[in-house]
Design brief:
664 residues; mainly beta; Methylamine Dehydrogenase, Chain H; four-stranded antiparallel sheet; 2 helices; 60 strands; 42% strand; elongated
């Protein structure tokens, strides 16, 4: 055997040793390479990134644990705080209806929670980590739900559509009670802490009813009650014969004889509506309405304004003396909402963070600076992110539209962005900082989509309730187009040399920059999203019944449903050219296709509010989803996990000799 220098290694001991060393080094390198941890692709996870806010309809602190609080968001589900309201996190797993109207926490177990929605009740036995539907409350619109403070296995639920029920097993099963009261459409319920068989119920139009036998029978208690639409009740914890009632438009009333008689008690209040009542241990009684928050000491005569906010929907007091006061507020479009708490003299309300219940109706990425993203809420607030959706701040508390619908950056003019909404079109020339009205010539109808036509100078389209309108001067003046839809236009999209409109009655196509339109195929509407996909060379349409695809320029449409849920209302379509993915945002969920729409799969995990109504791709291919009442989600991949390599060894035959280790 010749070595590299030509000598015979069989005769040269030094050469033999060098060759042996080389072989050992090569083998060792191979073994070490196999043992190097290998990167394993990690699953993509949706992260809730804000903004903070949401209409809080109910709030429930644990009676036994001052750190635990639950909040119910209109169409946004349930949020849990484990630090007394300072920070919040979503707790929606298993919650089939996210429009949470009422919450109750067991007095003896902060892990046991009941939730009421317009379609039934839900129970959690693990502190909100998971929820299960309550079969015996299915289909009932639950307005209020309350645990018995003395007997935690007993609970009551009311429903404004005519339901009153009782549970004797901690909320697991329910039976109807009080048929005469149920027919009066009960709204709210309180229990006498000193005698828990005594129950008061406020009804929609028939005042207050009282039971002293645990709901077996009820009698009306309306003497002196000047308004019978009772929206809130509370009892003085130190004198349980004193009861306060709030009405929808008749102010507050007070009874000192257990409801036998009532007198008006609205001195000091601004407004005649009462949304919520609560009491602490001092006792101080709290009242909230559209105008603000008020307090009165037990035995006092005049309500005094306290620090808070307007449009408060819910009040509750936690355990302790006097206990932390919690408030939930919000009313769109007037107030975006959130939750806050106050201690001591209630003079310093503190807002928590982490409630992400803002209804986001549109997202738009600046094409000249794709890390900059704008978002608008259905309440009219404009938000901006400068880091591809990683964090959000407010541009304007009140934007140009009180009821906005769409946002669109001009792809050819830097920092020009359009907003469509209830009053028409507004335009910004500075990236959304300031706006001017740009709706001259538009009909007196809401504008939904706005499309600045690519590769043109000033051509803009607007979808209205009576068809497509067009401007050729950057929105200064508008004219009706020809041949297009006559009804609501839900979506507009651009493709190579053609434009698309999704309308109430199907899809329309234009080949002359939107001046004229023709019906494209026989797809029925409403068509809420259209995508002329460059990665799939097909056109996609999203409807209330799913996704449809055309491979012949819109002449024919076929369902593209492989892997999609059977019930799917599509609200948004986009594509990622880097991954060749067509992406759908829908009620419920986000899905993608990598094979031109032949098959679909769910995108990521962790989408705690799956009702996605807008999508956008920011810089770096970051996918953003705006949800109905869940703020914004950002799809991010966590750092890859690693696996230590394993050296594959061939199996040793049973009759083979095993190698003998050399002696040292």
């Amino acid at each position: 055997m010749k070595s590299e220098d030509g000598s015979d290694s069989r005769c040269d001991p030094y050469a033999r040793e060098a060759l042996r060393t080389t072989r050992l080094s090569t083998l060792l390198a191979a073994v070490m390479a196999a043992l190097v941890p290998a990167a394993v692709p990690a699953a993509k996870i949706w992260k809730s990134v804000g903004p903070d806010g949401g209409v809080v309809d109910c709030i429930a602190p644990s009676p036994s644990d001052a750190t635990v609080v639950y909040a119910g968001i209109a169409n946004g589900g349930i949020y849990l705080s484990a630090d007394g309201g300072a920070t919040w996190s979503s707790a929606n797993t298993g919650l089939a209806n996210l429009d949470v109207r009422s919450l109750a926490v067991s007095p003896s177990d902060p892990q046991r929670v009941l939730a009421g929605t317009p379609t039934g009740g839900f129970l959690s036995v693990d502190g909100g980590s998971s929820w299960s539907a309550i079969a015996t409350l299915s289909g009932s619109a639950i307005g209020d739900i309350v645990f018995d403070p003395a007997s935690p296995q007993i609970a009551y639920a009311t429903g404004s559509e005519g339901m009153l029920a009782k549970s004797t097993d901690g909320g697991a099963t329910w039976t109807a009670i009080g048929a005469n009261v149920a027919s009066k459409k009960p709204l709210t319920l309180i229990i006498d802490r000193s005698h828990s068989a005594t129950i008061y119920i406020g009804t929609l139009d028939d005042g207050v009813y009282k039971s002293t036998d645990g709901g077996a029978s009820f009698t009306a208690q309306n003497s002196g009650l000047g308004n019978l639409h009772v929206s809130a009740l509370v009892m003085d914890p130190t004198a349980t014969s004193t009861v306060y009632a709030g009405t929808v438009d008749g102010g507050a009333f007070k009874s000192t004889d257990g409801g036998a008689s009532w007198s008006s008690f609205s001195f000091g209040l601004v407004g005649t509506d009462v949304a919520a009542l609560a009491a602490d241990s001092f006792p101080t009684i709290y009242l909230a309405n559209r105008s603000g928050m008020y307090a009165i000491a037990g035995g006092g005569l005049i309500w005094t304004p306290i620090a808070g906010t307007t449009f408060v929907n819910a009040l509750a007091v936690g355990p302790g003396s006097p206990g932390r006061l919690f408030a939930g507020f919000g009313h769109l479009p007037d107030s975006g909402g959130n939750a806050f708490y106050s201690d001591g003299d209630r003079s310093q309300p503190r807002f928590g963070t982490g409630i992400h219940g803002v209804p986001i109706v549109a997202l738009a990425v600046n094409p000249f600076a794709p890390s900059r993203v704008l978002a608008i809420s259905s309440g009219g607030t404009t938000y901006v992110s400068e880091d591809a959706g990683g964090s959000w701040g407010q541009v304007q508390l009140v934007g140009p539209e009180a009821l906005p619908v769409s946002l669109a950056f001009d792809p050819d003019e830097q920092d020009v962005v359009y907003e469509g909404g209830a009053t028409g079109v507004h335009k910004s020339n500075n990236g959304g900082q300031t706006w001017t009205f740009a709706g001259s010539g538009l009909p007196d109808a809401a504008v939904r989509p706005v499309l600045p036509v690519p590769a043109t100078t000033g051509v803009v389209l607007a979808g209205t309730a009576i068809g497509v309108y067009r401007a050729t001067d950057g929105g200064a003046s508008w004219q009706a187009t020809n041949g297009g839809p006559a009804g609501i236009v839900w979506s507009l999209a651009a493709g190579p040399g053609r434009l698309w409109a999704g309308a109430d009655d199907g899809v329309y196509k234009s080949s002359d920059q939107g001046a004229t339109w023709t019906r494209s195929g026989n797809l029925s509407g409403p068509v809420r999203a259209v995508l002329d996909s460059s990665v799939a060379s097909r056109v996609f349409a999203g409807t209330d019944t799913g996704v449809f695809v055309s491979s012949d320029g819109g002449a024919t449409w076929t369902p593209a449903s492989g892997g999609l849920p059977s019930v799917l209302a599509v609200h948004a379509l986009t594509e990622d050219t880097a991954t060749a993915a067509v992406i759908v945002g829908a009620f419920p969920g986000v899905y993608e296709s990598l094979d031109h729409g032949s098959s679909w799969s769910s995108v990521g995990s962790g989408l705690t509010n799956p009702y996605v109504q807008t999508l956008a791709l920011a810089s770096g291919g970051v996918l953003l989803g705006g949800s109905q009442a869940g703020s914004i989600f950002r799809l991010a991949a966590p750092p890859p996990t690693v696996e230590r390599g394993v050296v594959d060894r061939p199996p040793v035959p049973q009759n083979a000799r095993r190698p003998i280790s050399p002696r040292p």
